[in-house]
Target: Pseudo-rSAM protein/SPASM domain protein
Amino acid sequence: MVDTGKEKDPFPGCENAQWLFVNVFPSLTYVAETADSRPQYRGSRPVADGRGGPMISVSKLLCDLDAEGDGLRYDAADESDREQIRAEKQRRPVVVWNTTKQCNLYCDHCYAAADTECAPGELSTTEGKRLLDDLADYGVPVVLFSGGEPLVREDLEELVAYAADAGIRPVLSTNGTLITEERARDLKAAGLKYAGVSVDGLPERNDAFRGEEGAFDAALRGIEACQSAGLKTGLRYTITEANADDLEDVVALLHEAGLDRFCFYHLDYGGRGDEIRDVDLTPAERREAVRTVCDMTREYHARGEEIETLLVGNYADAGFLVEYAREHLSEAAAERIYRYLQVNGGDPTGERVADVDYQGNVHLTQFWQNYSLGNVRDRPFGAIWEDESNPLLRKLRNREAHLKGKCADCAYQSVCRGGSRLRALSVHDDPFAPDPQCYLHDDEIEGGSPVFDTGPEPAD
Model:
């Protein structure tokens, strides 16, 4: 895209000529070139753990339970011996690659609006490898193979192995129903590091949500196949009004089956997710659901049954965790959590996570499929990602100057960054309006710093 000096239409061809924004993954704020010509980015917002983008680790913050991804989330990690955690790679986004639009299920909330039929224009195996070379050259630390359902691609193992050989950490997002013991072994042998399996409620509710009877049992068999193959596996659970009451029971059931990692997503209003806003939680219900996750995490910890719990997609969670710590732990704990979350950096749209769809279009996040920054068939990914002649990308990376309403003056702005811009757009037709799913109370967001400066914590 050539910069003509004029503000360009940030949504060419977009219905209703709206800006489009989203929340949940990206965050690389381009500032300038360094002496070695490598781009630098604003702040110290390290990329997330690569198993789904920038997440808030409840278990780390409330129970000090370390997990592999936490070095990427909360620490500079300059001294890490893991390649994907080193500082250089922290400046690059996690990339979600929607390898296909085809899926064997038809889920109500699918952000990719996947279908049972294969869509035209899908990147071929050769083009996929070219994309992975491109991402490796740019220094991308992690690629998340997603869909649709990525396991419908017969070349998935070949692509996973290619990514691993290129030095990119390959991880998987799947509904789990197509994972056999053989495919789990093959994926593990190819170098896959993690499989996140989506389950959205107990069997009856999950199957209704996913459009197929038996989907829950098939996903559980897929999880068991991954465990038998020695492949790290975890739950992905999108919380809605329909399944919030199942949350603790699903965790208990899957923990008994051997899972210890549980990632809870807030509904973002992309794809078919925008069509089911009426079953989303109210802000008050959302607050209680997050409180349930916090209480549950601490209860497991108190019993000596450590589980890793994470929250994704609503960065009001960051402010709530500080308030929760103040109420249930201590002011010093609230201060520590706040400082950690400042490093995590809040909503990452357009910065720390990027999306490449099945046709090669680059998006600000996987949830925002309506707007493309460019196509990797035409330009390298890095050139597209750093092209701030795009006004939407540029303003998103400097969103603090554009946020409106309560988000503009929020005490938790540095750890939230306005929450979901996609939800704001979908509900208010304005990408800089307040996130309609912010559930923090007025007395929590008003005023100056939300924590007292207690000084450095004493050494152990």
